[in-house]
Each structure stands twice: as C-alpha cells, then as structure tokens.
Amino acid sequence: MKLSLVSLVTKNVENVKKYLDSLLSQTSNDFEIILCLNGKESENKQIISLLTNYFEKFKNRLQVIYNSKTNSYQYNLLSAFKLAKGEYITVFNTDITLIKYYYIENMIKNAEKYNVDVLEFKPRLNGSISWKPKARLINDRRIDLAKNPLPFAYVFPFIFNKIFKKSLVQKVMKFKLKNTNDTKLCIELNYILLFEAKSYTYLDFKIYREYFPADMWLNSKRVLNIFDELEKYLLNMNRKLFEEITYAKYYFLKLLMTGFLKETSFTYKNIYKTKEEIHEKRSKLLLAKHLELLEKLEAFYKAENYLLTNPYFSRNNEEVTLMLFPISKMKNKKILKQLV
Predict the structure, then answer these.
(1) What Pfam family is a match for this entry (predicted)?
(2) How confident is the model over 246-305, as pLDDT tens digits?
C-alpha cells in the first residue's frame, strides 16, 4: 500500500458520498482511506448507513475511526497514524470541493520521486477564504534538516498540504498532545512531525484546494499557547530552533490569523447568502481580541529585541515588511493579497 488518506472532516453525508465516489474513479488504486468520525455511532447513523455500500467496493481499503470522547482533529490524526498501512500518509478531507481522477496518482508519484520525510505542496485555500500564497522556500530542492533550518521558519503551518513518510509518523505515535481543542489545521502536530523529520522538499504547485469553512474556530490565544508549547518542546529536546519558531509564530499570528479573521472571499456563493453572515462567524469581538493580543505580542518582541536580533526579520521580502509594520496601522491592509 503506497498511500494512506486520512479525512479529519467527516460530517456531511453528501460530501462523504462525493468524496468516496471520486476516489473510486482514481487512476491509481494503491491507497487506503481512513475516515475519522466524532461522536457516538448513534450520532453518525446516516454516514454509517452510507458507508455500508462502500466497504464492499473498497474492500479492505476503507477504515473508520470512532471518537466518542475527545473532539480533536489531532487526536484523531494520531489514531489514524496507528492504523495506517501506507508507505506515505496525507490528510485528505471529505470537504474538498473537487477531486480529479488523477489526484491520488499524482501524490503517489511525487511521494516516491522525492522520497523525503516531509513533502510539502503549495497550499490553496478556498471557501470563505481564497488564498494561493507565493513560495516561501526554493522549489524542488531536497533539504537536509540537520544542516538547513529554513523550513522550520518557512513551512506553511497546515497539516493538509503535506505528505509524510510512515517511518516519520511512527516516531510521534506516543506524542502527548498539549492542545486537543483544535482545528483541522493541526498546527501542533504539523511542527512536531517537522521537528522529528530529517529531510524535506517543497514543491511550488498545488495538488488540490483545501476548503476553509466560515465557522472554523480561530482563536488567537489558543494559537499563541500552541507555539509557546512548541518552544518548550524544543527547549526540552535541546533543539536550537528558537529563532525559527519565534519567526513562525509571529508570521502566523500577525499575518495569517489577522488575514483569516478580517478577509473573506465568495468564490462559492452557496455557502452563505451575504457577506454579513460570514462576518457574524468571524465577529468583530473576536478580531478585537486578536488585535489586543497581537499588540501585546508585538510589544514583547520589541522588548526582547527579536525584531532586530532574529536574522529572519532582517530578510528583504514582502512578509517581513508586513510583519514589521505596526499592527495599529494594518487595519485597511489586505494582508493575504500581499502574500500571493
């Protein structure tokens, strides 16, 4: 088995049906599917009923995880890691809006070609956020992470645009999550896997579009806590990656979180009728709390002299220019558009 697909989002019956039908039509069958269901079996009756037919069609290539206790994407992902039979593992959710017949073959081909612990593709977000960011690392280059720490600063902080080697995944099987109240971004596990990896490659093209729902839980304090825990983890492991992770933290909170909270798109107009309905999901209060936290973080970084002493903040690029711009003056800036 070459590839294990893990869906952390398995809630909508219609989406699950389209997803499984699309996977039946792939040009490669050298993959398995692991669906993660939250809640008791009684709460997932419709999906379980639907899956009955697909168990026969996929034979032993379809598995289901029931999580009735901890409603955590990362907890489910760790559980899926333990079941996965593929040589490579990737998160491939049922809410992906379009799955073309060659997607799986393309993923397997690239995973085998580069054969690195972490293979990252350009992320492409759609739904309530539309974003196709510019590359942050050199395309198509194998990086020895023991010699080159750049990916720790510049990796995109999402789990879903990467393919991981099973041998890497096995290293984190017993990892104790600090944050179980999470989102499908799985920020903590994304970095823990990278910390354990030895090799990495970035490919500057997308495989598919990841759906970004309007009701995704965006909590700045929770994200800050995640990065603080990652810093403690590195300290305990005696890993000298402090400059990289402090840069990554500032990038995520000041640029991405701010952009996610204040910028929306409407490529798929059937999600919500009006712009106001999405703004209700990402409320003014949430944004105000985020900006308040960000002002404190900005003051802390200045007090600790990070913006002057951390070499990543001395680089001449668009994201550094934005990060050094005072948060008090960023109200009308289209942050995500400046990062494409």
Answers:
(1) Glycos_transf_2
(2) 999 999 999 999 999 888 654 444 444 455 555 555 567 888 999 999 999 999 999 999
Distance, CA of 70 to CA of 177 (rounded, Å): 12
Q: Render pLDDT for 153-183 as a digit per residue (tens, 0 to 9).
A: 999 999 999 999 999 999 999 898 887 778 8
* Residue reference for tokens 């041998």: 167
Kind and range of the H or E element at 65? Answer: strand 62-67
Domain count, the chain: 2
Residue with the two structure tokens 């799955």: 99
Determine the longest span between alpha carbons in the chain, in angstroms. Answer: 61
Identify whether residues 167 and 311 lie together within a single domain: no
Q: Are residues 117 and 49 part of one domain?
A: yes
| 138 and 202 Cβ atoms separated by less than 8 Å | yes
Q: Are 185 and 257 in contact (CB under 8 A)?
A: no
Residue type, 170: Q
Contact 220, 109 (CB under 8 A): no
Q: List alpha helices for 176-283, DSSP H.
A: 187-196, 220-236, 242-250, 258-262, 275-281
Whether 181 and 270 map to the same domain: the answer is no
Q: What is the domain range of residue 303?
A: 250-339
Q: Are 228 and 270 in contact (CB under 8 A)?
A: no
pTM score, two decimals?
A: 0.93
In a domain? residue 242: no
| Contacts by residues 326-333 (CB-CB < 8 Å, ≥ 24 positions apart) | 326/298, 327/254, 327/258, 327/291, 327/294, 327/295, 327/298, 328/295, 330/258
